[in-house]
Amino acid sequence: MTALTLPEPIAAYFAAEHNPEALARCFTAHATLKDEGHTHTGVDAISAFLAEASARYSATSVPFAIEREDGFQIVRANVTGNFPGSPIALAYRFRLERGRIASLEITA
Q1: Residue 20: predicted pLDDT
Q2: Which of 26, 51, 81, 89 is deepest in the core (most CB within 10 A)?
Q3: Into how many domains does the chain fold?
Q4: Under a CB-based contact definition with an 8 Å cutoff, are residues 104 and 36 in contact?
């Protein structure tokens, strides 16, 4: 099996999965994150959401595919955790800017 090569900010995002402070460093100052029907704007709001989600779901994400589309990097990952429907394949739609994540939308 060939290892999946992810751009550095995206690889750092998945590597820091249960470390909200490290996750926050992956984002630009005015980044947006859309997940669970809500939009979180700015590093503080994103960090707070990710910390709460990590504590609630104890989810582990394993990326298995990446494609590029209209300036976005779309990563598919198998996600397992303490939530209904686990495990599930999710799509992470990243827009990168100057070596950081400017926007991220997570969908099923």
Answers
A1: 81
A2: 26
A3: 1
A4: no
Q: Does residue 73 form part of some domain?
A: yes
Long-range contacts of 20-26 (CB under 8 A, 24+ apart): 20/47, 20/48, 20/50, 20/51, 20/54, 21/47, 23/47, 23/50, 24/50, 26/100, 26/101
Its sign, for the CA torsion 79, 76, 89, 4, is negative
SS3 label, residue 87 = coil
Which domain range does residue 15 map to? 8-107
CA 63 to chain centre: 10
Q: What are phi and psi of 21, to 5 degrees?
A: -65, -45
The predicted-structure confidence for 53-91, as pLDDT tens digits, reads as follows: 999 999 999 999 999 999 999 999 999 999 999 999 999
Task: Give residue 70's Cα distance to chain centre.
Answer: 18
The answer to whether position 88 is within a domain reads yes
Q: What is the CATH number of the domain that holds 94?
A: 3.10.450.50
| Residue 2 covered by a domain | no
Question: Largest Cα–Cα distance of the chain, in whole Å?
Answer: 38
